[in-house]
Amino acid sequence: MANNLKLRVIGLPTAITDKLANHNIVTVQDFLTLNFIELQRKTGLTYQKLSAISTEVNNFVSPRGIPVSQLLQPSHAIFNGELDVFLKGGITHGHITEFSGAPGLGKTQLCLQLAFSNTLHGGASNGVLYIDTEGAFNSSRLLDIAVHKYGTTTQEELESSLNRIHLWHPHSLKDIIDKLISIEVFIIKERIGLLIIDSMGSIVRRDFGAEKSVERGTQMCSLSSSLKRIAHTFNLAVVVTNHVTAKMETSKDLNGGSTSIPALGPSWSHWINSRLHLFISQNARRLIVSKSPEIPEIIVNYCISKGGIEIQSGGCS
């Protein structure tokens, strides 16, 4: 995959990438398959300049070792509260975690809470990339959580944390895939430790509906692969939200019924590592860990307060 990367994403000067592109040298593979004599003949660049470019390209695509300092960084993105106890530490780095549930149950609230917490407790990787696909990001609500959950009160504290959350509104699923292919420089520069896509389900439904199943499957596979690669390579936590869809059921008396299940199908379920599902039962909001390599399937009641999602051991504050 690295060989297909565009040279422009490596951070080379635009004048250089434009000059190379004029001679059909656009990707890493295009550059590396030519020797310096061929490159000099095609581009007119000096040996010294080509040597410097070659060093940049090789440093970027060579396999990265894990810095020892990374082993000392937090292994989870945390909410800093009872949710972390419930989740045995928080949201695991290097994994893809899904928050699923019907509208209005608090999926975005969880994302906002986790995002702000990461700016405070993310160690050296305290940056957040928040990909908002449906305009659900609410800055006023984020400030409420900052004040009531984390006690952030001064303008300086707020600005310091908010500047570490980078918000992006994609136009399509392909936009997200294209960005993830060339995101390495951004992750390193901004010290991203948490990547959120809210909502995965809505942008897939908007782009494809019930049709184009082959194209949808191809793009979802490409997206899933990129998310896995980024999570593993940079040891960051990836969180996506997903809506629910009705699953029809039949019984012996042929009376059809339905139940709600996370959308995007079984293939997507195999790509994610963990799933937290929000639902309502017996007039109570409930949160279940329905998939996890670390935690058994357990259910707790929760409520939504000014500070975000709280485990409901008593009343909500």
What would you say this structure looks like, in words?
The chain is an alpha/beta fold and 317 residues long. Helix content is 42%, strand content 23%. The chain contains 14 helices and 13 strands. The chain has helices at 14-21, 28-32, 36-43, 47-61, 68-71, 82-86, 107-121, 139-148, 155-162, 173-181, 184-190, 200-208, 213-234, 265-271; strands at residues 76-77, 91-92, 96-101, 127-132, 165-168, 192-198, 237-242, 244-249, 257-262, 274-281, 284-291, 299-305, 308-311. The chain is globular and about 75 Å long.
| Tertiary shape | globular
Mean pLDDT: 85
Q: Which sequence of SSEs, written as H and E, runs from N to C?
A: HHHHHEHEEHEHHEHHEHHEEEHEEEE
Query: What class, by secondary structure content?
Result: alpha/beta
The helix fraction, in percent, is: 40-55%
Beta-strand content: 15-25%
